[in-house]
């Protein structure tokens, strides 16, 4: 891989880390920023964009070579599961899954399909993270109107073989997902939940906070993700993926970031929760094995709380 020059690195820094955009977006934050970068270095906007995309390609190539975002090995699954269990008492967790909406400018093609339930244009980022907030799987590019479970169903994650979940391990998610042997979700509150089921839901919710925190860190570091005005959607996907890889690089190098302020509240607002129902996608009901597995974990939590 070719070395990147200092100006190219500075181009990318200004694009990823600094944002001049405001809440009403009357002026294009990204175009303002790329114009500022271009002026700073005495080049055209097209040259500045080329530099940004060049470093994105370099980061993505690094990920291909070194697996900066990768599914955990069998031994790594054991480490992740042990850490989750020590903190939350739920056995077998190797990751938390969730989706986050990245606000974008209205695309020229099919703009209405990108309008989410809150009424703004967005692109969905689905991620899985471990106990360290490291992303182990990222899927980005679906339109904001697409339901989270449909995003999951269309992603490679929904097709992962059981061999990728050693020793009966699983992910954890919220009620937009369907309960399976490899994806543990809470009980839907129908008004008749038992105390055991309520305790399970509460414990699972605390464990799932890790992925919300990971998204908060991602958007806290790379504030460009708070509003993307990249005209070409393919470039939007490239930048989001690059930021996700850089997120992992920061964590792996102990580059701590604490200035997230109220970002967790912002992330919660962008999650646009919509519990799954049969109108969203035609899927079978919870299978018996998954129900039994969840019931066993409910009993494990009860015993550990005695």
UniProtKB/TrEMBL annotation:
What main location does UniProt list?
nucleus
Keyword Nucleus attributed: yes
Location comes to: Nucleus
Question: Does the keyword section mention Cell inner membrane?
Answer: no
For molecular function, the Gene Ontology terms on record are: hydrolase activity; metal ion binding; nuclease activity
Alphabetized PANTHER family for the sequence: GH03217P-RELATED, PTHR22930
Give the matching InterPro entries: HARBI1-like (IPR045249), HARBI1_dom (IPR027806)
Where in the numbering of this chain does the DDE Tnp4 domain appear?
97-248
Q: Per the record, GO CC terms?
A: nucleus
Q: Which cofactor does it need?
A: a divalent metal cation
Q: Which Pfam families match?
A: DDE_Tnp_4
What is the name attached to this protein's record?
A: DDE Tnp4 domain-containing protein
Keywords linked to the UniProt accession:
Hydrolase, Metal-binding, Nuclease, Nucleus
Q: Which domain of life is it from?
A: Eukaryota
Which family is it part of? Answer: Belongs to the HARBI1 family.
């Amino acid at each position: 891989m070719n070395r990147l020059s200092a100006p190219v690195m500075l181009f990318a820094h200004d694009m990823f880390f600094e944002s001049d955009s405001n809440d009403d977006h009357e002026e294009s934050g990204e175009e303002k920023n790329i114009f500022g970068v271009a002026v700073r270095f005495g080049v055209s906007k097209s040259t500045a964009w080329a530099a940004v995309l060049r470093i994105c390609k370099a980061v993505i190539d690094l990920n291909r070579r070194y697996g900066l975002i990768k599914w955990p090995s069998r031994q790594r699954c054991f480490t992740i599961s042990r850490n989750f269990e020590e903190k939350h008492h739920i056995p077998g967790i190797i990751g938390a899954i969730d989706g986050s909406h990245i606000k974008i400018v209205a695309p020229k093609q099919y703009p209405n399909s990108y309008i989410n339930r809150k009424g703004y244009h967005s692109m969905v980022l689905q991620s899985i993270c471990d106990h360290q907030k490291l992303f182990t799987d990222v899927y980005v590019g679906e339109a904001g109107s697409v339901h989270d479970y449909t995003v999951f169903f269309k992603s490679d994650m929904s097709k992962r073989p059981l061999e990728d979940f050693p020793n009966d391990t699983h992910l954890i998610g919220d009620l937009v997902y369907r309960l399976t042997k490899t994806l543990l979700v809470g009980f839907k509150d129908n008004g008749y939940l038992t105390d055991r089921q309520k305790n399970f839901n509460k414990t699972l919710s605390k464990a799932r906070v890790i992925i919300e925190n990971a998204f908060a860190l991602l958007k806290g570091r790379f504030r460009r993700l708070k509003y993307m005005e990249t005209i070409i959607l393919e470039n939007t996907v490239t930048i989001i993926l690059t930021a996700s890889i850089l997120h992992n690089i920061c964590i792996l190098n102990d580059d701590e970031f604490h200035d997230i302020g109220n970002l967790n509240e912002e992330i919660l607002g962008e999650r646009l929760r919509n519990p799954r129902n049969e109108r969203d996608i035609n899927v079978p009901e919870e299978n018996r094995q998954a129900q039994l597995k969840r019931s066993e974990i409910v009993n494990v939590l009860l015993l550990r709380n005695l």
